[in-house]
Amino acid sequence: MTTMTPDAAGLAALEARLKQDLAWLELPAKSWVPRRVVDGKSVVDVVIVGAGMAGLVASAMLRRLGVDNQLVLDRARAGEEGPWVTFARMRTLRSPKELTGPAMGMPALTFRAFYEAQYGRQAWQALDRAPRTMWMDYLIWYRKVLDLPVRNGVSVERIHARTDELFALDISEGGTSRQILARHVVLATGRDGLGGAYVPSLCDGIDRRFWAHSSAPIDFERLRGRRVAVVGAGASAMDNAAMALEAGAARLDLFIRRADIPRVNKFTGIGSQGVVHGFAGLSDDWKWRFLDHTLKAQTPPPRQSVLRVSAYPQAHFHLASPIDDLAVAGDHLTVTTPKGRYATDFIIFGTGFKVDLALRDELAEFAPHIRFWCDRFPAPDGMDNAELENSPDLGDSFQFLEKEPGACPMLARLHCFNYPATLSHGKLSGDIPAISEGADRLARGIVRRLFVEDREIHFANLKAFATPELAGDEWQDADVTHQPAE
């Protein structure tokens, strides 16, 4: 794959076809939302925070529906949005290559079209899964061909609710701070979008030179010749273990809490359009039942990721080995599990993410008012699940709901289009398979609200519209030209 030369002419031909497809479908739709100016500032209809895959397809879907007064803000440099070339460390995506992802139902916008245009159909048939960095290339191309309004190097520091039903966003860009006004804000902020990395408390007080979370920048070359431990059995844990081994780690200890590595991908296994569109229609107890079972079964790491680790003789899998204690012992760490004690020089926690609004300064004003599932839904007997209990309780267009009705009405305009939305909507906002369907649900809800709010303007436009389609000379009144018989 790395030796193939992409065909620029093929990609240009695909772009021409996509342009024609959009023209035939009259997309994007004409702009229709009335512009606003408040306090001398132009108001943005929708600000999307995050220009990863979810943010891009949310923007694209809004433009498709005629909402063009929008911004997509990302603090990363262009081409480094999302995890794909930062902390994602797998060789290929975990999803099947055929998934259409953010293509919004358009064949010419799929990853397959992007790949085949450059390398041909035979290469596509030989491809197992999409190379991780090529998926990033695809998203960069997606952004370019759809001309999405992304601004990089912009951090959203704080979001405020104004009394005039607008948001004021404090943003930092290029070392300067300013404020922008918006009617709706979409948080397309990924796995840690409502919190941050989860690390067990046993790390408290241990110098950071000894450990890192799998989502952090890690200098793997520094681990050459050293003893490395990894905690977890998920895909991220395996990928980080493999990176350490490939960098020349002298020993790799993989500590896994379970007595066996999960082998069955439950939710993916029952994936269908029924699940995509029907999950949100389930009763609360059925939503909980589905996801509690899925989370407790856990998602297995891809087979190739495990083989990537086990190919090294210095890799050691420790099953039924939760870490009971972690202590500094001079220039290294001592890891204690029920099976023994192990010396290691550096430990990586592939332990996922947590919802914790205290870690999101931008949401400080809203945090006390956001309703979570634990605020209104008691876990069924035998199904206690902290991850589900800490999931935000969302409305039908991913908007936050109030813990106390009337206490923070602006939450209805603040949308959670990231991974923690799963319990309310299903897997529509954090993974590749149904991201277009999620963006469609999000965008239609925002469009509906924008139109209803501006109903007086639209009705005035209706009354004022006076462009005739008939001139009046297309017919004659029969009663004028014809006299009735005596």
Automatic annotation (TrEMBL):
SUPFAM superfamilies: FAD/NAD(P)-binding domain (SSF51905). The keyword Transferase does not apply. Keywords: Oxidoreductase. GO terms for molecular function: flavin adenine dinucleotide binding; monooxygenase activity. Gene3D superfamilies: FAD/NAD(P)-binding domain. InterPro entries: Auxin_biosynth/cation_transpt, FAD/NAD-bd_sf. Pfam families: Pyr_redox_3 (PF13738). It comes from the Bacteria. The keyword Secreted does not apply. This is Oxidoreductase. It comes from Bradyrhizobium diazoefficiens (strain JCM 10833 / BCRC 13528 / IAM 13628 / NBRC 14792 / USDA 110). The lineage of its organism: Bacteria, Pseudomonadati, Pseudomonadota, Alphaproteobacteria, Hyphomicrobiales.
